[in-house]
Each structure stands twice: as C-alpha cells, then as structure tokens.
Amino acid sequence: MLAQLALSVTTATTVAATGYAWRYRQKTLSDPLTGLANRAALEAEFRRRRRSGPVAVAVGDMNGFKAFNDTYGHRFGDQVLIEVARVLARETCRGEIPVRLHGDEFAVLLPGITDQAAAEHRVRQLQSAITQITAIDGQPVEVSMALGVMTMPAESADLSHLLGSADDRMYGDKHTNHSRTDIAIPQPQ
C-alpha cells in the first residue's frame, strides 16, 4: 500500500514536471504578444527542416506601421500585429512556420520550396491575405506588408544568409509598386 502511494506521488510529480517543462519550452519558443513562433523557434526548425530538403525563408515588415502607433496608440498597433499574426497563421500551409522576429517584422519558414519563382508566388499569396485586413477593433484600416524571400538547397542553406538575402529582397519590395508604404490611416473620430 505504501509502495503504491509512493508510486502514485512519483507518477503525479513526473507528469506535473513534464507538463511544466513542456509549457516552459513552448513559452520560450513563442512570441508573447502574437503567439507565433519566435526567432529561437525559427532557428531550431530551420536546423531540423534543412536536413530533409531545400528551404526558403520569407522576411517582411509592415508598411506604414508607425502611423498606427502614432495615430491610435501602441495598444492599437499591438492589435494590428496580432491580426497580422492570425492571418499568417491561418494562411500558412502545413509545414510552413510563421514567426514574429521583433517589432513589426515577421518571417515565414517555407520548407520544401526549391524554386525562387515558386517562393515568390507563395509570398505574394501571403501579402494578398494580409491586405484583406480592413478593420481592427471596428476601426477601418489599410494593412500591407513588404516581403522578400530567398531559397537555398539544403546542403548549403545557412539561416543567417537566407534571412539577410530575404531582408534585402524585402527592401527591394518596399521600393516597388507591390507594397504601399504610404498607407492612409483614417483619423479617429
């Protein structure tokens, strides 16, 4: 009887500790505001995914995001980021991982994409989905994101290089007609 009690306590303690460890790990790998994966999660998934094939990484930031904070305040800006995260989470396909890097910068890990044109097509789909955000907390908004993407074969893939190249392409996207940087923010009434 005493042995069964000791076993029950040990089992309960182990289950509780395992649950706590899992929750702690999830907390360290996710962004507290949006719930998306964070950079540490991106790095871990990149190392894991590149072993099984080619990878692409898209990097983007919000166009005109500062205007949301300046016009409506930072809580509203946070709501914009949360909504963008929801859209990215909803629109990513199985295996793709949306990430909030920091501030208004996001990334999406796109494993298995071998072709730069296919990666760019996928990025345009994500951009289009983000532009469908038309209201935040009942306030009309125009939301867009500049995105750049880079692909690499698995054997030569390096996350730092991919992120840097995708970031360069994202700034190129900001300077084309694909992304609007002059977002009109309706004034509060």
Automatic annotation (TrEMBL):
Region (Disordered): 170-189
PROSITE patterns: GGDEF (PS50887)
Family annotation (Pfam families): GGDEF (PF00990)
Record GO terms (molecular function): diguanylate cyclase activity
Ranges annotated as biased composition (Basic and acidic residues): 170-181
Domain GGDEF residue range list: 53-188
CDD domains (alphabetical): GGDEF
Protein name per its UniProtKB record: Diguanylate cyclase (GGDEF)-like protein
Organism: Saccharopolyspora dendranthemae
